[in-house]
């Protein structure tokens, strides 16, 4: 029992062999995949894949911070209309990225706040991208979670910090707000000691498995295109760090994903 909570199967990287990629994932024991979007076109593509593969691919709708500057007028409104359909299971990936200079920080923050507001209104958890922006992103998440209605499901299941690269202290602070953390290929890298320290310090109940395919391919395939079939390699390293069985890690992290994204009914009826 595994799942990949963050992979971009809609990307053109998979156009030549998408069917084979999905079949390999199933053969590796993956129960489902989550395909976040990076812009409006990607959201529509992810939705299409979820409709082609019901119960196996689930779609999230969001505008990635690096693509905020490329938004056309009305894109956020159109995204909002898409997100209100029951076909999407999250808002993402959204957030802040100060490592790249593709979008101005102020513009990123405006789009981020708008999409957090959309998530609150739709009661959909968020998939958060954060790169070199914790000084702004963490306080925003604090305020957003604090101001959610007391009866909102998001109080208990607000979202995931995707491809988490922050400190363990920061993670534990956000865990107090009920956020969980997506861990992927970097925990397997020879130079990934800091990532392994975070993975070891987090309880399994706060961890999701992800590939971020086609990026961040785990060892020993680093440098090649990533795909969901490599999830067991990531799970094996986390199992080693926690001195748990591979089966335990697969089961617990999959249960975490099902709970966060409210998938139990959809899996039982669609699979």
Explain how this protein is built.
This protein is α/β, with parallel strands linked by helices. The chain has a single domain, classed as Alpha-Beta Barrel (TIM Barrel), CATH 3.20.20.140. It is 42% helix and 15% strand. The chain is built from 10 helices and 8 strands. It has helices at residues 18-27, 40-52, 75-83, 105-122, 134-147, 168-175, 193-201, 231-242, 246-260, 264-270; strands at residues 2-4, 30-35, 57-61, 88-97, 126-131, 159-161, 180-183, 207-209. Strands 1-2-3-4-5-6-7-8 form an 8-stranded parallel β-sheet. α2 links the parallel β2 (30-35) and β3 (57-61). α8 packs across α9. The longest helix is centred in the middle third of the chain and has 18 residues, at 105-122. The protein is globular, with a radius of gyration of 17 Å. The model has no long low-confidence stretch (mean pLDDT 95).
Features:
single chain, 271 residues, alpha/beta, TIM Barrel, eight-stranded parallel sheet
- The CATH architecture can be given as Alpha-Beta Barrel
Q: What is the number of independent domains?
A: 1
Helix content: 40-55%
Q: Tell me the strand percentage band.
A: 5-15%
SSE order, one letter for each helix or strand = EHEHEHEHEHEHEHEHHH
CATH fold label:
TIM Barrel
Give the CA-CA distance, first to last residue.
14 Å
CATH homologous superfamily title: Metal-dependent hydrolases
What is the number of helical segments per DSSP (H or I, 4+ residues)? 10
Mean pLDDT: 95
Indicate the overall shape: globular
Radius of gyration: 17 Å
Poorly predicted sequence stretches spanning 5 or more consecutive residues: none
Major sheet details: 8 strands, parallel
Q: In what order do the strands lie side by side in the largest sheet? A: 1-2-3-4-5-6-7-8
Structural class: alpha/beta
């Amino acid at each position: 029992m595994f799942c990949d909570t963050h992979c971009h199967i809609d990307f053109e990287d998979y156009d030549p062999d998408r069917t084979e990629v999905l079949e390999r994932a199933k053969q590796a024991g993956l129960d489902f995949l989550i395909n976040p979007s990076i812009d409006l076109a990607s959201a529509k593509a992810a939705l299409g894949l979820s409709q082609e593969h019901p119960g196996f691919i689930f779609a999230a709708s969001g505008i990635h911070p690096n693509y905020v500057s490329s938004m056309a007028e009305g894109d956020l409104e159109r995204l909002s209309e898409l997100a209100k359909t029951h076909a999407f299971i999250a808002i993402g990936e959204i957030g802040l990225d100060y490592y790249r200079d593709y979008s101005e920080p102020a513009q990123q923050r405006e789009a981020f706040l708008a999409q957090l507001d959309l998530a609150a209104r739709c009661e959909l958890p968020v998939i958060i991208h954060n790169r070199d922006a914790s000084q702004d992103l963490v306080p925003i998440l604090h305020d957003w979670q604090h101001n959610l209605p007391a009866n909102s499901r998001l109080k208990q299941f607000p979202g995931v910090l995707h491809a988490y690269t922050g400190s363990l202290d920061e993670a534990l602070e956000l865990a107090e707000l009920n956020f969980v953390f997506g861990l992927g290929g970097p925990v397997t890298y020879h130079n990934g000691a800091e990532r392994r320290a975070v993975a070891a310090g987090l309880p399994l109940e706060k961890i999701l498995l992800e590939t971020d395919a086609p990026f961040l391919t785990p060892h020993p395939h680093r440098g090649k295109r990533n795909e969901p079939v490599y999830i067991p390699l990531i799970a094996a390293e986390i199992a080693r760090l926690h001195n748990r069985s591979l089966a335990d890690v697969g089961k617990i992290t999959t249960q975490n994903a099902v709970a966060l994204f409210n998938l139990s009914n959809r899996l039982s009826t669609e699979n």
